[in-house]
Every structure is written in C-alpha cells, then in structure tokens.
Amino acid sequence: MMNNKLGLIAGEGKMPLAIAQKAKEQNYEVFVLGIKGNAREEDYKNCATRFKYIRLGQLGAGIEFFKSCGVTRFVMAGRVQHVSVFTNMMPDVRGAKFLASLKSMQTKYLLSRLIEEVQKEGLTCDNSALFLEDFFPQKGVLSQRHPTQQEQLTIDYGYHIAKEIARMDIGLTCVVSRQTVIAVEGMEGTDRCILRAGELYKTNEDKNAPAAVVKVARPNQDNRYDLPVIGTGTLRTMHKAGFGVLAFEAEKTLVMELDEVVALANKYQMCLIAI
Question: For a tag on the chain, would you pick the N or C end, based on fewer CB atoms within 10 A?
C-alpha cells in the first residue's frame, strides 16, 4: 500500500508552500519541519497535517518528528540564508556530532552529507521540485523585450562566470557589464547580491553600458537541494537596483508564478531570457 505521507523541510519563499499545496491536492498528508526564522507556520495552516519549528542543527529532533509521523520520504525546499550558520545554529546532540564530522560548510557538501545521514534512518530525500515539474521554462526569450546584440554578449559572458562560481560552490548568480564582473553571489543571497551590484553600477560613467543578472544551476546539479529559483521578488529587486536584463539557465531554473514574472518583466520593460 502506498504511503501518502510526505515530509517537507521548509525554508523561506513560495516554493515549499507550493509543494505542500500541490501535495495536499494529490491527497498527501504533509508534515512540515519549518526552519526557525525562515518558514512561517501560518502559511501552512491549510495544507499541513502537522507543523513543527526546528533550528539549524537539530538533526535528531527532525528525524524523530518525521519517524513519529510515519514519514518515509521528504523534500527540502526554500531559501535558508547562508549566514544562518552563524546566527541561527542550535544543534542537538546528533546534530553536533554530524557537524563535527564535516570537512567543509560549503552548501553542496553539507547538504549531500545531511541527506546521507538522514537516509541512514530509512528516510528518502526526493527531488526538491516535487510536483513542480512544469515550473522550468524552456530556452528562449519570455518577455516582450529581446536582448540587444551587446546585451547578448554580456549574457554569454555572465553565463560563463556564473557556471564557474557555481562549480566552485560559491553561489549561483552573478551581475556583469562590459565583460566585467560587478558582483557574485555569496552568503548574502541573490537579492542582496543584486542590490550590492546596483550600488556599484550606479558609479559607472557610461550609463548605456549593458548589464545583466545571470542565474544558473550547478554543473551536475543535484535536484534534491538548492535549485536555482527566481520569482517576482527577483525582478522587483532588479528594478530597484537599476538592472533590466535577467538571464537564467533553461530547464534547470525554477520560476515561481511564471505568468506574473513575465507580466512584471514587461511592465518594467525588462528582458527575461532562458539560456
């Protein structure tokens, strides 16, 4: 008999909530572990069977919650600010032992090791875009505005840079102009990277110099964690920072509320392109 129970480790944003809602529509009971300071219990009141807050590092408590609920498969979705490892870490005994065993705190290594640890308890980690398969646009221009020739050259350069920083597990986003890197995403996350780049870009004497925000997946992206995601918030941040081109990796970047994203890009006269 199929187990219709799904565990969800939820961070910030609309992605984990969308998974919970779609799972409920398919008659799943959803048991949510909300990362304290990131997920909000009130958002899940209509789609979660049970909700429990947990702090980063509380590995034993998280495993016990899922097992007590009869959960055998789970997904991890939503933003967890990387700086949380300094501000929101409160490990339990098992979590402390796990953290002590790590050779690195880089995202890719940490999360892959976390999955290995949890799977020892008979819990299977599923694709973090479970039920969201239609949220990954194909290659092409999605907005009314197409890139100029100079903007396309800037996008091509940014794609190369973004792929390299993704390979090094630094971040998934960069902002570039005139074959020059303005900013790369680090612990601060995509929005703050864009805003920081905007402050630097405003000092550019050539106000017509093309610039682009580029977001990609890691080479050999593990779809169980940290997928590249964009949404209306990304475009609002870009508009505030003064950038008009957003390029993202086709078929690998999850776009929340695609129709709203395209409409907002057209409102701002932005170029939105899957590459």
Answer: N
